[in-house]
Amino acid sequence: MEFPKFLLGDNTDYPSAIFIIHTDYPRFIINLENDEVEWLEDFTKEDENDLETEAENLIAQATAFYDREVSRYED
C-alpha cells in the first residue's frame, strides 16, 4: 500500500496536540503544538550530520502541509 508523504493525526489523550506524520524516509512525527519531533528511524553518526540540514526542510514541508490542509477545511 502506498501512503501520502504526510498524514494528519490527532488523539483525544492529547486534545491540544496536532501531529503530522512523515511516511517517507526519514520517517518522523512532529507535534505542532510544541514542535517536538520523534524520529522513527535509527541513525548513524554520518546520517545525523546529513539529517540536520534535511530536517529543517522536512519540518518546513510538514508545516506547509498542515497549513494547506487547514485552508481546505476552511473553504
Q: Largest sheet at a glance?
A: 4 strands, antiparallel
Instruction: Give the N-to-C terminal Cα separation.
Output: 30 Å
Tally of extended strands?
Answer: 4
Spatial strand arrangement across the major sheet: 1-2-3-4
Strand content: 15-25%
Helix content: 40-55%
- How would you sum up the global shape? globular
- Summing up helix and strand content along with how strands pair, one would put the structural category as alpha+beta
Low-confidence stretches: none
Global Rg: 13 Å
Q: What series of H and E elements makes up the topology?
A: EEEEH
The overall pLDDT average reads 92
Helical stretch tally: 1
In short:
The chain has 75 residues and is an alpha+beta fold.
What descriptive keywords fit this protein?
75 residues, single chain, 4-stranded antiparallel beta sheet, globular, alpha+beta
Task: Report on the architecture of this protein.
Strand 3 and strand 4 form a beta hairpin. The chain is of the alpha+beta class and 75 residues long. Strands 1-2-3-4 form a four-stranded antiparallel β-sheet, with helices on one face. 40% of the residues lie in helices and 21% in strands. The radius of gyration is 13 Å and the shape is globular. It has one helix and four strands, in the order E-E-E-E-H. The model has no long low-confidence stretch (mean pLDDT 92).
